[in-house]
Specification:
With 246 residues, the chain is of the alpha/beta class. 25% of the residues lie in helices and 23% in strands. The strands form 3 sheets. A 7-stranded mixed sheet has the order 3-2-1-4-10-6-11, sandwiched between helices. The radius of gyration is 18 Å and the shape is globular. It binds uridine-5'-diphosphate and manganese (II) ion (MN). Belongs to the glycosyltransferase 43 family. Pathway: Protein modification; protein glycosylation. It catalyses: 3-O-(beta-D-galactosyl-(1->3)-beta-D-galactosyl-(1->4)-beta-D-xylosyl)-L-seryl-[protein] + UDP-alpha-D-glucuronate = 3-O-(beta-D-GlcA-(1->3)-beta-D-Gal-(1->3)-beta-D-Gal-(1->4)-beta-D-Xyl)-L-seryl-[protein] + UDP + H(+). Keywords: Glycoprotein, Golgi apparatus, Manganese, Membrane, Metal-binding, Signal-anchor, Transferase, Transmembrane, Transmembrane helix.
Length: 246
C-alpha cells in the first residue's frame, strides 16, 4: 500500500502541448499510485486538456491559474519571465492544503513539468521518501546532468554538482526532488514566489522543509539518472487543419 504520488504539472497552450501531455500521461499510466494535478496557465480550463484527462484513465485533478502579465515590469525587468509555473504550482499547493488532511492522507508531492522525460523508476524511488528525496537530473544547467554529491563515509549530501551556482543551499532542479505530503500540509507558508531570485525557486522552496544534511539521496545513492530536463523545439506552423484537435 504505497503513499499517493501527487504529480503537479503546470501547462500552457502551444502547438506541442497535446504531444507533451500525451507523453507524460502515458508515463503516469505505468505508475500505480499517482494522482495527477494538472494546472493550466489560463483563465479557463480548455477542452484540449479536459479531453486528454478524461481519456487518460488516470486519477486527476484539473485546475487553472493564469500567470499575471506584469506588463509594467516587462521592459524594465524581464526576470519574471523566468518564473514559469509559479502561479500554477501555488494553485496546486492550495488545492492539496484545502483537500487533504494532515495525518490522514499519506503521500508525496512531485513537481512534474510537462516537457521533461521521466523513467517510471523515478516514481518507485519516491515511495521511499520520509521527508525530502533527491536524485540526479539529466541535461540541465549546461552540464549533461546535475546531481547531489554524497559524502562517501556517511552517504549524506555534502554538496552539488551543478552547471549553475552549485553553491545554492539546494542546487537542485524542480525535477530532482519530491517532498512528503505531511511536510507540505504542515508548512502552509511554503509557496513559490516571483520575488525569489531567478534560479532560486527550488532552493528557497526546499529551505522551508529541510536542510542539506537531512536530504534523502535516492536513485542508487544518486548514481542513476531517471529524469531528464528535455526541452521540445518549437515547431514551424504556417497553417491549421480545420476540425482536428492536435
Ligand atoms: N509553463 C506555464 N506557463 C508558461 C510557461 C511555462 O505554465 O508561460 C509551464 C510549462 O508547461 C512547464 C513548466 O511551466 O510545465 C516549466 O516551464 P518550461 O518547461 O518552459 O521551463 P524551463 O524548462 O525552460 O525551465
Ligand atoms: Mn521545461
Amino acid at each position: 500500500n504505497y503513499p499517493v504520488i501527487y504529480a503537479v504539472t503546470p501547462t500552457y497552450w502551444r502547438h506541442v502541448q497535446k504531444a507533451e501531455l500525451t507523453r507524460i500521461s502515458q508515463t503516469l499510466q505505468l505508475v500505480p499510485n499517482v494522482h495527477w494535478i494538472v494546472v493550466e496557465d489560463s483563465d479557463y480550463k480548455t477542452d484540449l486538456v479536459r479531453n486528454l484527462l478524461t481519456e487518460s484513465d488516470l486519477i486527476y485533478t484539473h485546475l487553472n491559474a493564469k500567470t499575471p502579465p506584469f506588463e509594467k515590469l516587462k521592459d524594465k525587468d524581464p526576470r519574471w519571465k523566468r518564473h514559469r509555473g509559479v502561479e500554477q504550482r501555488n494553485t496546486a499547493l492550495k488545492w492539496l492544503r484545502e483537500n487533504l488532511k494532515l495525518g490522514k492522507d499519506k503521500g508525496v508531492v512531485y513537481f512534474m513539468d510537462d516537457d521533461n522525460t521521466y523513467n517510471v523508476r523515478v516514481f518507485q524511488e519516491m515511495n521511499k521518501i520520509k521527508t525530502v528525496g533527491v536524485w540526479p537530473v539529466g541535461l540541465v544547467g549546461g552540464l549533461n546532468a546535475e546531481t547531489p554529491v554524497l559524502d562517501k563515509k556517511t552517504g549524506k549530501v555534502m554538496g552539488y554538482r551543478s552547471g549553475w551556482r552549485p553553491d545554492r543551499p539546494f542546487a537542485i532542479d524542480m525535477a530532482g526532488f519530491a517532498i512528503n505530503l505531511d511536510l507540505i500540509l504542515s508548512r502552509t507558508d511554503a509557496v513559490f514566489s516571483y520575488k525569489m531570485e531567478k534560479g532560486y525557486q527550488e532552493s528557497e522552496f526546499l529551505s522551508y522543509f529541510t536542510t542539506k544534511e537531512q536530504l534523502e539521496p535516492l536513485a542508487d545513492n544518486c548514481t542513476k539518472v531517471y529524469v531528464w530536463h528535455t526541452r521540445t523545439e518549437k515547431p514551424v506552423v504556417n497553417g491549421i487543419v480545420p476540425g482536428l484537435e492536435v
